């Protein structure tokens, strides 16, 4: 889904895979650009272009909206015979459980700063290697694809900005699997291989230079693998699902492809030492920002997605508004559509509002890029309204002048005291 790459860019505000030593996977997808590699020893270091990702090769014989602090609910179903109730856990509850786990990891600091695992250090000492080069390459990619955000990261400490670059690159490569040039050839098995590669990365066995940067990052910050796995699940969803029955289903999808980025980033962004907020509330705000960004992407790209046969809008809410899939494909702005869009935009703004308080709780040097991303993305919703809700044939975008004007505003907001302190002072 094309929206996700933009969400990663704003919230942090083509993947290569094992077995590509010759630049061509068993499935015949070529890598457009490989860095010179050292002699053939495992693991081999291969850097693939983000634009022309390579499909991984398996082993022989292998088949080819509310914050965390708010209450969440699950529904119960009871059989006519009065049997014991069967709990049906809502998407919000599932995500809330992940948020609680991430907050606990941050509080306990399960991964204190330490030296990189031997496997990482050994491979990166190879000619043309080195962690510095790996992180520098991640920074170059971030600068190329997310210029505004990249500038904001330069305010962070070196260790934090390099870590954010590494996370950004992994997310972008993951998105390229289902939204890159080879997307039509990607199979569930390919995503399974990508997930195994992720597990190797977390175990200190990175495959290439870009993996190594993230593998080193997770030794320095309490980053858990679950959000990364969940993002891959989001890619699996995109392979098989083109409709969402209700907002509960859409909520889960938005968490998978965008909310996860917030959970990955909080340990690196850091919570301000003076903050009185709970870790759970900060993670909840990061989740809300991811959801808001993705919902904004969806509303911006309705026409583009429809031309690909996809509708990322709650089917029950469309029906309630008197709209059908056929109306979406026709792409005609009607009063029914305007009314429907007003409701969707209101919900996206609600998530942005939830996120704002949490941003103030981040470390001071981390706030500016996040504030900038939030202000710019909120303006996309304004542009949809300015286009009279025509997101079928008009793409809402924020002009360069407005982007430039947003930066000093974002910087000013980044200087504010954490909301938890201001709230205690009143």
From TrEMBL:
GO biological process, alphabetically ordered: carotenoid biosynthetic process
The protein's GO terms of the molecular function aspect are: 15-cis-phytoene synthase activity; geranylgeranyl diphosphate synthase activity; squalene synthase [NAD(P)H] activity
CDD domains per the UniProt record, alphabetical = Trans_IPPS_HH (cd00683)
* Protein family membership: Belongs to the phytoene/squalene synthase family.
Principal cellular location given in the protein's record: plastid
Q: How does the protein associate with the membrane? A: Peripheral membrane protein
Stretch forming the signal peptide = 1-21
InterPro entries xrefs:
Isoprenoid_synthase_dom_sf, Squ/phyt_synthse, Squalene/phytoene_synthase_CS, Trans_IPPS_bact-type, Trans_IPPS_HH
Report the subcellular localization.
Answer: Plastid, Chloroplast membrane; Plastid, Chloroplast, Plastoglobule
Q: What is its EC number?
A: 2.5.1.32
GO CC terms for this protein?
Answer: chloroplast membrane; plastoglobule
Into which EC class is this enzyme placed? transferase
Reactions it catalyzes: 2 (2E,6E,10E)-geranylgeranyl diphosphate = 15-cis-phytoene + 2 diphosphate
Protein name per its UniProtKB record: 15-cis-phytoene synthase
- Alphabetically list the UniProt keywords: Carotenoid biosynthesis, Isoprene biosynthesis, Signal, Transferase, Transit peptide
Among Gene3D superfamilies, the record links this protein to: Farnesyl Diphosphate Synthase
